Amino acid sequence: MLTITRRSVIGGAGALAAVTMFDRAWAQSSSGPFQLEPLEYDYDELEPDIDALTMKIHYERHHQSYVDGLNKAVADYPDIAKMPLQDILAKLGEMPESIRPVLRNFGGGHANHTMFWEIMSPESGKPQGELKAAIEGMGGFDKFKEEFNNAGTKRFGSGWVFVTVDKSGKLGIESCPNQDTPLMDGKRVLMGNDVWEHAYYLKYQNQRGDYLRAWWNTVDWDWVGKRYAAAKAGTLKI
Ligand code: MN3
């Protein structure tokens, strides 16, 4: 089966990008409706900001376990298995009670980590164009990063810090506990950082603030800009 990777889409077939790149999390796999997408970089390529062992464990064990748990939960619910993940998460309250906590934790975890790997790259760059203007509108890039880092630092225990984006392009910063995501409120996520200890503890130990500051070096602004455009066009999924 042909796999269109993120970078091959960007590099070789720009016109295809709009219709394919946000569908990649939904490609069918033989083991279940949800699958772990291939990473677009090697485990050591985000060093020194994220170490290779953390990347390997985080991707191969943590994220894989969310995918496996999610597939297991929907195995007896073919109608739910066919739903796009963002719809499952936005309609958690309508899901069968017996699998609702699993959908929340593993479905949220799958959405969050799929987004997380996508928005990082060894080549970071800077916000450009309309995204840059939206960040300027929040008081500038430094203030934006500081507000995001503060929200991530203040999240007690495990969770995430996100930048949300609405269809008008307006940005917001919020943090969520565990694997919760603004997708559960029907919102769209532009980008986010994982502040579970498994994301940083090997290298940063208890210094979550240091991790949050260093993480910005890994953000793929070209890709985040594409997510921003997709959000405004109504095509951004997770
Ligand atoms: Mn994680």
Short synopsis of the structure:
With 238 residues, the chain is mostly helical. It has helices spanning 6-12, 14-20, 52-74, 78-81, 85-90, 100-118, 129-136, 141-154, 201-204, 208-215, 221-233, and strands spanning 159-165, 171-177, 188-194.
Mean pLDDT reading: 90
How many beta-strand runs?
3
Q: Could you say how many structural domains there are in total?
A: 2
What is the overall shape?
A: globular
Distinct ligands: manganese (III) ion
Query: From the structure provided, what is the oligomeric state, counting identical versus distinct chains?
Result: single chain
Give me the CATH superfamily of the largest domain: Fe,Mn superoxide dismutase (SOD) domain
Unreliable runs, pLDDT <50, ≥5 residues?
7-30
Class per helix and strand makeup = mainly alpha
CATH class of the largest domain: Mainly Alpha
Lateral arrangement of strands in the main beta sheet: 2-1-3
Radius of gyration: 17 Å
Helical content (DSSP H or I, runs of 4+): 40-55%
CATH domain topology of the largest domain? Helix Hairpins
End-to-end Cα distance: 23 Å
Order of helices and strands: HHHHHHHHEEEHHH
